[in-house]
């Protein structure tokens, strides 16, 4: 995140992984300078936190092939991942 704040959501979709189906959330801001490397088959998404836009830099390892995309999409609110998108108060 180079500007703003975002919650990055991850769910391990790798069946042979010891963390299979486990979720993780990461609070990323323009101030904490995080570099997050997401392995293949780990579902991921983000939501902006706060009232300002967030600018996120995504650097894929492969060129995007519009005719044969290597991505799957699911509704983040209609799935069985069990990920909580709602921010929690501290």
Any descriptors?
single chain; 90 residues; mainly beta; three-stranded antiparallel beta sheet; 26% strand; globular
Describe the structure.
With 90 residues, the protein is an all-beta fold. It has one domain (1-77). 0% of the residues lie in helices and 26% in strands. It contains no helices and three strands. The protein has strands at residues 5-12, 23-29, 42-49. Strands 2-1-3 form a three-stranded antiparallel β-sheet, with no helix packed on it. 7% of the residues are buried.
Mind sketching the topology for me?
Elements: E1 5-12, E2 23-29, E3 42-49
Antiparallel strand pairs: 1-2, 1-3
Gap between N and C termini:
22 Å
Largest sheet: 3 strands, antiparallel
Radius of gyration: 14 Å
Overall, the morphology is globular
Strand adjacency order, main sheet: 2-1-3
Number of separate strands: 3
**Total of domains:** 1
Unreliable spans are none
Mean pLDDT: 88
SS summary, helix count: 0
Q: What fraction, in percent, of the residue positions are helical? A: under 10%
SSE string = EEE
**What class would the helix/strand composition place it in?**
mainly beta
Strand content: 25-35%
């Amino acid at each position: 995140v180079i500007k703003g704040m975002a919650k990055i959501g991850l769910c391990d979709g790798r069946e042979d992984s010891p963390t299979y189906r486990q979720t993780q959330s990461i609070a990323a801001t323009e101030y904490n300078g995080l570099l997050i490397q997401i392995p293949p088959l780990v579902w991921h998404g983000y939501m902006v936190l706060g009232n300002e836009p967030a600018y996120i830099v995504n650097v894929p390892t492969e060129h995007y092939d519009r005719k044969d995309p290597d991505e799957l999409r699911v509704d983040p609110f209609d799935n069985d991942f069990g990920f909580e998108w709602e921010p929690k108060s501290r």
